[in-house]
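Is this the right way to post C-alpha cells for a design question? Let me know if I should format differently. Anyway, here goes:
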C-alpha cells in the first residue's frame, strides 16, 4: 500500500510540473506525448509496444490478469498471452516464463494447468494458467507466488514437452503425483472433463498434509461429479510415503493402465523400478521437474559472444545462457531445461561443460547454452 501511495504522489507532482495544458486538456497532452515518441528513433518492436505492450515481433509476451492463492505457499497465475501465442498446446506441456526482477530477466519453466480446450469462449479472451509453489531455494517461484501483481507483463516461451495426454484418452488411466507434480495432470484432467473422456481414472496423490493438496476442492468436486474418477490422497507426514512396491494393494489393475507420474525424484525412480520389473515401461510416462546436474569443477573462464562483441567472466556453475543474458546478449531459448534444443549455438573456440553429465565439448560442437558452462575460456557463435 505504501509503495502505491508513493507512486500516486509522484504522478500527481509530475502532472503539476507539466503545467495546466496537461491537466486541463488531457487529450492534447496525450497527443503531444505520442508525437514526441514517434519522432524518437525506435525499432519496429518499440512501435508495437506503444500500441499494445503484448505485441512484439521478436518474442511472446503475456499479461498477468489475476493471481489466485491455492495453498499457503502456492498460487495460480492467470495470464493473457499476446500476439503470436498459439493455444494448440497439449495438456501436460510446460511453458517458459520470464519476469523482470531488479533489472534482470529471470526465467523458469512451469507446467500449464489450463486446458487448451475452450468452452464457447471467444479466442480474444482466452487465457492460460500456471500454478507455482514457492520453493525456499527458488527466487523466481517465491516472487511469482508472493510478489507479482496483476497487470505485470511477462515474457513467454512456446509450450514444450512430451508428457502429454493423447486424444482420445486411454480407456483406463492411472495418475501418480506428488506435491506440485500434480500441476501438469490438472491440465490433463480439465481437458478430459471438457472432452467427456473420464471413463476410468485412478489418481494417487501425495502431499505433506491435507492443507498442502493443490486444487483439493476442485478435485473433490470432480470425484463427486464423475463415477469414473477416483482420487486418493496420502498425507506423508502422518502416513509416510506411497510404497509403489505395494501398488497391488491400492490399484490391483495398475498393470492394465496407461500411467502418468510426476513428482519428487525418489517417487519417479521407484515408479521406473516397479514398471521395469513388470516389463511395462511402455505404459509409464514420467515428467521430471529438476535437471540433474553434475558437481561443478574447474574455475570457469572468459566467455566471448562473437556476434554480439561482448565478453564476460563466469564461474564453472553458471549456465552460458544466463551469463549471456546478464551481459545483454539476446540468447536463443526454449524450455531452459536442456530438453527442447532451442538454445543450441556453435562453440567456435575453447571448451564448455555439460552441467548434467560433466562431459566437455570441443570447438566446432553445437552446445545447449541452458545446461552448459564455461570450462576455461571459450567463444560462442552468438
Amino acid at each position: 500500500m505504501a509503495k502505491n501511495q508513493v507512486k500516486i504522489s509522484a504522478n500527481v507532482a509530475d502532472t503539476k510540473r507539466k503545467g495546466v495544458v496537461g491537466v486541463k486538456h488531457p487529450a492534447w497532452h496525450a497527443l503531444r506525448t505520442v508525437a514526441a515518441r514517434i519522432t524518437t528513433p525506435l525499432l519496429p518492436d518499440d512501435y508495437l509496444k506503444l500500441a499494445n505492450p503484448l505485441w512484439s515481433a521478436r518474442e511472446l509476451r503475456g499479461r498477468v490478469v489475476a493471481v489466485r492463492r491455492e495453498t499457503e505457499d502456492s498460487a495460480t497465475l492467470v495470464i493473457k498471452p499476446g500476439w503470436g501465442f498459439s493455444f494448440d498446446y497439449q495438456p501436460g506441456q510446460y511453458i517458459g516464463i520470464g519476469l523482470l526482477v531488479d533489472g534482470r530477466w529471470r526465467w523458469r519453466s512451469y507446467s500449464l494447468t489450463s486446458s487448451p480446450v475452450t468452452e464457447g469462449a471467444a479466442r480474444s479472451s482466452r487465457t492460460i494458467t500456471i500454478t507455482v509453489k514457492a520453493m525456499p531455494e527458488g527466487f523466481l517461484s517465491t516472487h511469482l507466488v508472493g510478489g507479482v501483481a496483476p497487470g505485470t507483463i511477462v515474457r513467454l516461451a512456446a509450450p514444450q514437452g512430451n508428457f502429454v495426454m493423447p486424444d482420445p484418452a486411454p480407456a483406463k488411466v492411472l495418475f501418480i503425483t506428488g506435491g506440485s507434480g500434480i500441476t501438469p495432470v490438472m491440465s490433463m484432467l480439465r481437458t478430459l472433463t471438457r472432452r467427456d473422456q473420464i471413463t476410468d481414472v485412478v489418481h494417487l496423490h501425495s502431499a505433506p498434509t491435507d492443507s498442502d493438496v493443490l486444487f483439493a476442492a476442485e478435485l473433490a468436486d470432480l470425484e463427486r461429479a464423475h463415477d469414473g474418477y477416483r482420487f486418493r490422497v496420502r498425507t506423508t507426514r502422518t502416513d509416510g510415503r506411497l510404497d509403489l512396491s505395494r501398488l497391488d494393494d491400492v490399484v490391483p489393475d495398475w498393470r492394465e493402465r496407461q500411467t502418468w507420474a510426476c513428482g519428487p525424484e525418489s517417487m519417479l525412480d521407484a515408479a521406473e523400478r516397479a514398471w521395469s520389473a513388470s516389463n511395462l515401461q511402455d505404459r509409464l510416462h514420467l515428467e521430471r521437474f529438476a535437471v540433474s546436474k553434475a558437481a561443478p569443477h574447474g574455475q570457469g573462464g572468459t566467455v566471448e559472444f562473437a556476434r554480439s562483441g561482448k565478453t564476460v567472466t563466469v564461474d564453472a556453475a553458471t549456465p552460458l545462457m544466463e551469463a549471456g543474458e546478464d551481459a545483454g546478449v539476446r540468447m536463443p531459448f526454449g524450455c531452459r531445461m536442456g530438453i527442447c534444443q532451442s538454445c543450441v549455438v556453435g562453440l567456435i573456440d575453447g571448451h564448455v561443460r555439460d552441467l548434467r553429465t560433466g562431459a566437455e565439448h570441443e570447438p566446432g560442437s553445437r552446445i545447449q547454452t541452458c545446461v552448459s558452462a564455461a570450462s576455461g575460456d571459450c567463444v560462442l557463435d552468438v
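Format looks fine. Someone answered above. Worth noting: The first strand starts at residue 60 and ends at 71. Residues 1-24, 35-51 have pLDDT under 50 and may be disordered.
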